[in-house]
Design brief:
The chain is about 20% helix and about 30% strand. It is an alpha/beta fold. It has one domain: Rossmann fold (3-Layer(aba) Sandwich), CATH 3.40.50. The radius of gyration is 14 Å and the shape is globular. This is Rho-related GTP-binding protein RhoU.
Length: about 120
């Protein structure tokens, strides 16, 4: 199975993958870096390929190369940045609807711990 993580560069999506992939032998964050980790679901082993993508606009033409054969997409946004959710609607959701029309999307708010309460 293949999981691709997508979102703005400031969304800490790579940090989330590091937590998921902590059992990977080596994980060095880079453009299109990936690793395979093992999960157990309902008593069955699932090998999950974790694919990181670059959120910067200069990679807009390369990022779609990571989408083929994707089983699920984590669409991440930083909850501590006011415009982040707007970019999900304006930029990321249309890209994913175009390149991954039948792939389930999971919207993930990251950095909740950085929100200041007044």
């Amino acid at each position: 199975k293949k999981l691709v993580i997508v979102g703005d560069n400031s969304s800490s999506k790579t940090s989330l993958l590091v937590v998921f992939g902590k059992r990977c032998n080596i994980y060095v964050p880079a453009v299109f870096e990936n690793c395979v980790t093992e999960f157990h679901v309902d008593g069955k082993q699932v090998d999950l390929a974790l694919w990181d993508t670059a959120g910067m606009e200069i990679y807009d033409r390369l990022r779609p190369l990571s989408y083929p054969d994707t089983d699920v997409v984590l669409l991440c946004f930083a909850v501590d940045l006011p415009d982040a959710l707007d970019r999900v609607a304006a930029r990321w959701a249309p890209e994913l609807r175009h390149f991954c029309p039948r792939v389930p999307l999971i919207l993930v708010g990251i950095k909740r711990d950085l929100i200041l309460t007044v």
